[in-house]
């Protein structure tokens, strides 16, 4: 990263480890690091996100349910243009347009398929393993907020999710799908370590960000994922873009 004045202020989710752990923010952070954009981070606790972004004039999500947050991170302030944006996909499009070099493929038929397969395979596994453990790395005020919101959505206590026997069955039931998604990631391995081969794509950052988030919550979840083909290869290929995480 350069030592020049930051062009971007990145609003991130605070945790007790004082590093980025949100998978959505990690996608943005890896893209900023890949493009060598100078930026600084402001970490926000869960209960402060809405008030902070509202005061900045960030437009809220157009939600259809009271259970869906109207303000989320990542959000950015692009200092040169005084632009404020929220949502990782909108931010990715803005960054690619504003900083086109080096280029990053955001969408294609193939990488969309990879993303869908990975999300379908890992989503249920992460809900059984990451969601009930995430609260452990949140600051006290965020713990209260997270518990209140998640338990209202789930209809039961977070601790009820942490059933080790059920968790094990979930991973076992998903093993073939997780393996197939990982093998699909390696389609272009003859051309390089990334999903498309020689150059990273936004899907690589989605996969690596999800894995790194799991790692920050619990190393065992990360190790479980990376035993399958594809996941560790993508993660390691993206490690050069994890140099700035705070």
Automatic annotation (TrEMBL):
Ranges of residues in domain GST N-terminal: 12-103
The species this protein was found in: Exophiala spinifera
Alphabetical list of Pfam families matching this protein: GST_C_7, GST_N_2
Domain of life: Eukaryota
Name used for this protein in its record: GST N-terminal domain-containing protein
């Amino acid at each position: 990263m350069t030592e020049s004045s930051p062009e971007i202020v990145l609003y991130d989710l605070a945790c007790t480890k004082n590093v980025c752990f949100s998978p959505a923010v990690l996608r943005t952070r890896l893209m900023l690091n890949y493009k060598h954009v100078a930026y600084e981070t402001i970490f926000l606790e869960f209960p402060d996100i809405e008030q902070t972004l509202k005061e900045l004039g960030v437009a809220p999500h157009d939600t259809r349910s009271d259970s869906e947050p109207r303000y989320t991170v990542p959000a950015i302030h692009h200092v040169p243009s005084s632009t404020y944006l929220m949502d990782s996909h909108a931010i990715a499009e803005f960054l690619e347009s504003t900083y086109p070099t080096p280029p990053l493929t955001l969408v294609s038929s193939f990488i969309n398929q990879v993303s869908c397969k990975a999300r379908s395979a890992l989503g249920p596994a992460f809900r059984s393993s990451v969601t009930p453990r995430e609260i452990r790395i949140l600051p006290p005020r965020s713990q209260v907020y997270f518990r209140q919101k998640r338990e209202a959505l789930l209809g039961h206590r977070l601790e009820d999710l942490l059933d080790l026997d059920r968790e094990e069955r979930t991973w076992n039931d998903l093993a073939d799908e997780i393996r197939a998604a990982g093998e699909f990631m390696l389609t272009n391995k003859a051309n390089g370590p990334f999903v498309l081969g020689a150059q990273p794509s936004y899907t690589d950052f989605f996969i690596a960000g999800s894995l790194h988030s799991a790692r920050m919550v619990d190393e065992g979840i990360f190790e479980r994922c990376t035993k399958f083909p594809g996941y560790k290869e993508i993660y390691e290929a993206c490690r050069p873009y994890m140099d700035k995480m705070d």
